[in-house]
Amino acid sequence: MWLPWLPWALALLLTASCSEPADRASIFADLSPAELRAVRTFLMGRPELGLSPSQGGPLAKNSLFLVELLPPPKRRALRFLEHGGARPPREARAVLFFGAQAEPNVTELAVGPLPSPSSYRALPVGRGRSAPFSARPMTRREYELLHGALVAALAPLEPLLLEATGFGFQNCSERCLTFSDIAPRGLGPGERRTWLVIQRFVEGYFLHPAGLEVLLDHGDPEPRRWSVQRLWYNGRYFGSVRELAESHARGSLALARLPEPPARQQLFSSYEPRGRFPGGTRTDVHGAKVCEPQGRRYRLRGNRLEYGGWSLAFRLRSSAGLQLFDVRFGGERLAYELSVQEAIAFYGGHSPAAMQTKYMDAGWAMGASSYELARGVDCPESATFLDAHHMLDADGPVRFPNALCVFELPTGVPLRRHFDSDFQGGFHFYAGLEGRALVLRTTSTVYNYDYIWDFLLYPNGVLEAKVHATGYIHATFYTPEGRRYGSRVHTHLLGNIHTHLVHYKVDLDVAGSGNSFETMDIAFENISNPWSAGARVSGDQGRGGTGTIPAPGLSPPLTCRRYHLAVTRRHENEPSSSSIYSQNDPWDPPVTFESFIRDNETIEDQDLVAWVTVGFLHVPHAEDIPNTATPGNAVGFFLRPFNFFNEDPSVASRAAVIVRPLDPPLCSQVHIERWTPASAGPCVHPEPFTYNGTSRPV
Fold it and tell me: 2',4',5'-topaquinone: which positions carry it (predicted)?
């Protein structure tokens, strides 16, 4: 539904001249369950929208898909944060699927003011007023209908599947087959044709493809008109289910018979321990732990986090994940926003599903895939755990317990240290500062892959953004032709080569919003030695320059990843480099990052945004079984001060140790200076391990 711009009802607004820092941070806080319910109740009650419940019913309906915070405009937020201006009205972003009309589309609304919404207005979706209905993300209801259509369509193949795999689809309660869907869903705009990888439903089913891939067209809002268009089985293409079934019945089909899966304890895709380390290291006892012997040194109030000189506000967007606001050190803002934008994995392969796969995880709502973190595994036992509430493809808010954690981490390496030798077997002094960082963490489990998202705050004014990739590889059925595109990681399993790319938005405000961008190029020079005639000196020199740093070229929806770093003018109508619609409409996406940088605007003394891309190539190998491990599969970037402070700000830390000899050069007695207790004390967390693992409506 295309809606005109509607005026907001005026409300009495209080100024923030006396507001506390935690209160100021609350303008960026995620919507509470009560606010989520209020938005849904208001919209469901608007007759002109004609909304139906999200769950159940047909696809051709009007429904509410997503509700999350709509952050205030930057200028209005800064007036509130810096100048005691009025508190910005609190608003929600609502994504509506309008499928029950002549021209189905996806429309976004701003709803407010919260906590008691009374009006809404249309939000632009990229370059237009709405997104095509075919670009909408998948819903639980569409998956239910997709499964039903697949089971019905593959009924003639049940004898083949039972003979080859021992598992089936029909009337199944155990020893069942399942599927994973890949995207993009077609080859051009408006299509919704998905390749489905058929798998045996055992623990770690992502590593158990059955050798069958099915192309199912589900673009029509009426599921009765859905159809299977192509199939691929054990290296061969078939034009219909009937053709494949007849080939099997004639005995002319090369059947890929899979062995009976062993018990879970021996299943290669299971986490069950098996084997022994040759060195005899005990693994049935606890190893090293993180602890806080004198209590927590950070302060957490609502969504405001303080540590050392750092302070920031944070939220967990349902659409794209962690987002930091108003990032300060020593009370001075360094960044207005630092946020995850997109995570991409594109694959190569011989099977149709593998060669088609280009995952853009914002389209799978990676922020709402923030399932429970396990105490002592995902985060230290001493961490503070926070719940998240999402309303995505649901008829009310859903609580995700322990979805975020905050903890102080010993880095295991000094922040800085020096041993000042006297070169006679003694020393003048030793000084060191223990390495610590505060970690804000969440995860996104987007089906097979698990991303661990971290922001780390160091006491020397350095901020690190990091992501670890783990979970199950996206694997396909092994054929000899597939060896060009990966590794044979198990008998019938090909680990497909792929590239991970992660995109971040960094809205830096260094000494104000008016910034410029400069790179330093290092060049080798060879000059005459000024103090020795006839001699020459070689070395490096630095010189300034501006521009973007290019990376390999990519197709339209991936253009923001074409650059390791790109710097643009900040605009309110360019809040994100990607969208939840790019995955299912990559050919004509609503948001095209290239337009951000092709408008030829000056970036000198302007409000600038740095768009950062990090990534790595993953060639799967046998050691990715059962899961990809985090060592060697982490990428990120640092924000480091460069002549911003007069000295390293970590000199304010009292965690330093200084040792000076009292009788140099003998050094038989020393004077030790430290400003923390001599002993850290006991370091054991008293609570036993607990884990729930559920997310429930609230």
Answer: 449
